[in-house]
Amino acid sequence: MKLYVVGFGGGNYEGMTIEAEIAIRKSELIVGYTIYIDLIKKIFPEKEYISTGMKKECERVEIAFKESRNRTVSLVCSGDSGVYGMAGLAIEMSKNYPDIDIEIVAGVTSAISGGAVLGSPLTNDFAVISLSDLLTPIEKIIKRIRCASEADFTIVLYNPSSKNRAEYLRKVCDIMLEYKPPETVCGYVRNIGRDGQKSCILTLDRLRETSVDMFTTVFVGNAETMVINGKMVTPRGYRNV
């Protein structure tokens, strides 16, 4: 009676932690969001799978717990299961399944893997903010953007845009431009660790005019962020010590 909640990284085998691979290999059943299951199937085609669609998170966790009564199960997420993933919900719902041994398995979230693609934008303090207002009111998201911008954090934006939120990145850039100069170094990475990976380093004013989607992670530098040899880097200040 074992349930692993596994973050498997960007979707490629090379970006998966050894711990995540071990947990999935130990599991007889893999449960997850349809898009994530399609990615994992390419790596572990021999496994049994159950998938559910968007907005079916509670149903997905319920399935995973019920199946865990009879066999070992992995509930999978891309990136890290504790960063906008299923770990929190699984722990919340675990009170209804006290007989199930639940283990959270860390993965590489896109702030880290995408940052590596761009260079080293997160060497100093940074904030991670999701622009999805499905579960968080937009007013709270805007307040967090303002506070992080005023404090001059490097900012990582998850879920920056969708069909219903096409203008959100532009609006957020307008807020950040109140605190950051237009030449602030920014970057984005789409499909991190997957087929069609694409990255770009640009300025904040250019980012404002850029179209992105849900599979893109956006990085907005702080006052010290710069481009060196084509890489985005936020110095921590070692050279000043």
Low-confidence runs of at least 5 consecutive residues: none
At the fourth level of CATH, the homologous superfamily of the largest domain is Tetrapyrrole methylase, C-terminal domain
Reported CATH architecture of the largest domain: 2-Layer Sandwich
Determine the CATH topology of the largest domain: Methyltransferase, Cobalt-precorrin-4 Transmethylase, Domain 2
In N-to-C order, the SSE pattern is EHEHEHEHEHEEHEHEEHEEE
The strands making up the biggest β-sheet line up spatially as 3-2-4-1-5
Strand content: 25-35%
Report on this model:
The protein folds into 2 domains: 2-108, 3-Layer(aba) Sandwich (Cobalt-precorrin-4 Transmethylase, domain 1), CATH 3.40.1010; 111-233, Tetrapyrrole methylase, C-terminal domain (Methyltransferase, Cobalt-precorrin-4 Transmethylase, Domain 2), CATH 3.30.950.10. The chain is α/β, with parallel strands linked by helices and 241 residues long. The chain is elongated. The chain is built from 8 helices and 13 strands. The longest helix is centred in the middle third of the chain and has 13 residues, at 138-150. It has helices spanning 18-26, 34-43, 57-68, 87-93, 110-118, 138-150, 168-176, 204-207; strands at residues 2-7, 29-33, 48-52, 73-77, 101-105, 119-120, 126-130, 154-158, 185-190, 198-203, 216-220, 226-228, 231-233. The strands form 3 sheets. Strands 3-2-4-1-5 form a 5-stranded parallel beta sheet, sandwiched between helices. A 5-stranded mixed beta sheet has the order 7-8-11-9-10, with helices on both faces. The model has no long low-confidence stretch (mean pLDDT 95). The protein is 30% helix and 25% strand.
